[in-house]
Amino acid sequence: MSTSASEQSTNIVDVSTRPVTSGDIASRDNSDRAGQRADEAGAVVRGLTRLWKIRRAVEVPASAEFEPLVRRVFAARRLADSAAAREFLEPMLKQLHDPGLLPEIDKAAGRLLSAAASREPIVIYGDYDVDGVTATTILFHTLTTLEPGTIIDTYVPHRLDEGYGLSSDAIGELAGRGAKVIVSVDCGVTAVEPARVARERGVDLIITDHHTPPSSATDMPKCFALVHPRVPGSKYPFGDLSGAGVAFKLAWRLATTHAGGGKVSEKMRALLLDLLALAALGTIADVVPLVGENRVIARFGLSRIKSSPLVGMRALVEASGLDGASVSSEDVGFKLGPRLNACGRMGHAREAVEMFTVATPQRANEIARNLTRLNRERQDTEKQIFEHAVQLAEQAGMTTPDRRAIVLAHESWHRGVVGIVCSRLVERFSRPTILMGRDGDVYHGSGRSVEGFSLAEAIEECRPMLKSGGGHAMAAGLSLEAARIAEFTEAFIAIANRAIAPDRLVGSLWVDTHAAIEELTEGAVRQLAALAPFGQGNPSVRVRLTRARMVDKPRALGTQGKHLSLQLAGEGGRHVRVVAWNWASLWNRFASDIRAGTMIEAVVSPKVSDWNGQVEPELLDLRIAE
Length: 626
Description:
By secondary structure, the protein is an alpha/beta fold. It has three domains: about 55-90 and about 510-625, CATH 2.40.50.460; about 95-375, Alpha-Beta Complex (inorganic pyrophosphatase (n-terminal core)); about 400-505, Diaminopimelate Epimerase, Chain A, domain 1 (Roll), CATH 3.10.310. The chain is built from 21 helices and 20 strands. Helix 10 runs antiparallel to helix 11 (about 265-285) and helix 13 crosses helix 16. It is globular and about 75 Å long.
């Protein structure tokens, strides 16, 4: 059995004081993952809506500890023996790496503690998304706990008025207000000009970030310290930390440095454990791979959200209607995260930072209720833009095989929402998508990508056409003058056409293994649930039901009838109810000919219903059985 969180926390309190270029790192990361996928790939099967990529069958270890279906899933995920499976199922805090391995973290921690002790004004410069808000909060509470008299403020740029990242104007303004140390979180690794302004104004700029760094050390911003797991020359063992993850590592190093390299106080130890809840929010919401350190952070952080002493966290949980016993990664993705992001998209993210840092209980509840209202506005706006963008993309021929990317701009689109709509278009049309809204003579936009196509590299290739741009392989932002929209559109689509074969313009599902309906026992499904938290790099379990019979026609679910309930029977006679979320329209488009008695195959995610405790898998795709 696993030890308790408190027993495992000794790693946090006892610690004492990859490749040459980022391009190499990105290429290695992509090739490593592609190599792993190629190694895992078995058969590819065409379903009604997507391609099923069946993980290659490997030898399944014998074990009385896990049911046969569970062992096959573990083997497909390269958890090839009980020991490996147990290590993955029961992550421990001692698996977190020593934060002292991060480049320049000791220099950053020393300067921040010196400034806090001598009452030099410190400003934490964050970002307006969940990752940035939680990272800001982590450093705020760490410094104010270590040095209660710290003179500290926070700054979050306005998404629409200022845009992403460190800005020279903001640095100058903060210096004018008396800031002596500015520490960025979740941004800054490419901020060469803002770093120059900080030097000229006599401000020590500390950058903490996790985004793709410049390709060589000579292109890095010249600042007091730069803490990043993947800068050129870094020896840090895990490169996929979120911004909140990097902030948590700095908080940890601040605590041990303040303690003289030995054990931290009980108060500080308790705070670090509580800060894992914030780090988990940022990690999950930023869609970094939930493996390695990120899995540890997410697993332990999720377990502490409901018990968080932060009044802002309690207010957010209550406003999100999460009155159950625990908070899952799905809750972060669909309830907590969207509310926090809505603040930055539809208003100003400084309210979210206020809620987590200095707000009274009454003010925190007021902000949390406002976040719920803003999230509803965001949902309405998103729906309008999505429907408009679908129409424009189809009219422009961007949904056909000969134009393998979508690039659209419209002056009426809310720039804070276009990124979410990109994700929906990628899901709908299976091609990289960039959407932009207008501000004067400049368009600002966001992009989302598909597996195997790096947005960051494509945007870099188009750099001469842009005012700014950058991000990850799968998500990025950019801005350009209105006069260059047409030129950029054609250039980007040409890059996509070269990189993406027409037969890849279909969504895909990775499937762990086959299963008979009779194998979907409550015990097996609950064992599979222990693989959570699920997310990027550790998707929810997906199994291919073979030779399942439709018992009767699907029944509508929900007040609007958007969902379906399917009754399937296995060859052994066992029946199971399968829930098909948002499948009513898909059924009319793809599966209306499937009748009662038809033998089908289905890809499902095994689940136990929260409502009745019964096994009720969720449908992802299906096809008529051969």
